[in-house]
Amino acid sequence: MREDGTTAGGARDDDPLLRVENLRTTFATETGTVRAVDGVSFDVERGETVGLVGESGAGKSVTARSLVGLVEDPGRVVGGSVRLDGAELTDNTESEWRDVRGGRIAMVFQDPLSRLNPVYTVGNQIEEALRIHRGLRGAAAREKAVELLEDVGIPDAARRAEAYPHEFSGGMCQRAVIAIALACDPDLLVCDEPTTALDVTTQAQILDLLDDLRAERDLAVLFITHDMGVVAEVCDRVNVMYAGEIVERAGVVDLFERPKHPYTQGLLDAVPARTARGERLAAIEGEVPTPTEPATACRFAPRCPRAFDACHSVHPTGVAVSADADDHTAACLHYPADATRDEAVERHRERDTRTGAEGDTE
Ligand code: SF4
């Protein structure tokens, strides 16, 4: 920490570990430019788990990949800012990205078996990560690899380090992938649907493990999922994504007890555990659109049960849902709830004109 209270990256003591502002990632396709991530902003603090939730196609995974410089061709981050401890990442060179990935930020993906190399033992693969990121070799690397396997709950870790991935169950493979992620002692763990391929019991164990690791290591975790049940289990704060935008943001209890955006309400109505026995499970009709133009209206309007005329001509931006709820925002023309409808619509119209496509370098 410098004398003026900033870190080497320029972050102040009270800055979040990760700050994403107005992030825009597009894909150039034959049929047009897909705006997969369209003005996304959120923070992640040390020691907390922040959720990014939404249906498939909402832009969650592209957001995660944009944070670590892994957007695949023809995708490109075209605007906005991603700061880790105050240091801007979006203008990183490939070698700077390599230092960040596996150094400060580690990722855990959905399919653990595909992340492990079948021809090397699990221990070898953790040792390789330790060699690259922490300079450990030989007995020191082996000892640390076994310790990491113990940390992620692999029994008889010294013997298991000699095993190949195909000798592990799905849950054990995911634990091994998490051990590799931890080998670089990251500040931020980005988990992209890490339990989707696992059975319910193993899923619960992995969620418990991630929560224990977060608490023990003061890790920041960005948790990407389509599963509201998982969100309730692990997240402190939640960002709901729809068609490339964040449409609602709140603390997890607030979101589940007082969801405001019609899309969030629809997602929660579709959770089996929240539906009374014998009652028909609700579903949101239609599909997430693929945005190819800047938003000039609410992208959820064609599916929204509460849509009214202005929803088709005014683009809602995230506003506090009421005057006393700064940390709960919704991008919906019905909010703030304590304004008249006309006032609320005008507020969104003005905010959208101000923020517009700021930072877009297309
Ligand atoms: S702005 Fe309109 S269409 Fe969009 S979520 Fe709100 S009510 Fe529905």
Automatic annotation (TrEMBL):
Its EC number is 7.2.2.11. SUPFAM superfamilies: P-loop containing nucleoside triphosphate hydrolases. Residues 343-362 are annotated as: Disordered. One of its GO terms (biological process) is peptide transport. GO terms for cellular component: plasma membrane. It is found in: Cell membrane. It is an enzyme of class 7 (translocase). It is a peripheral membrane protein. Residues 18-268 form the ABC transporter domain. It catalyses: Ni(2+)(out) + ATP + H2O = Ni(2+)(in) + ADP + phosphate + H(+). NCBIfam families: oligo_HPY. This is Nickel import system ATP-binding protein NikD. It comes from Halarchaeum grantii.
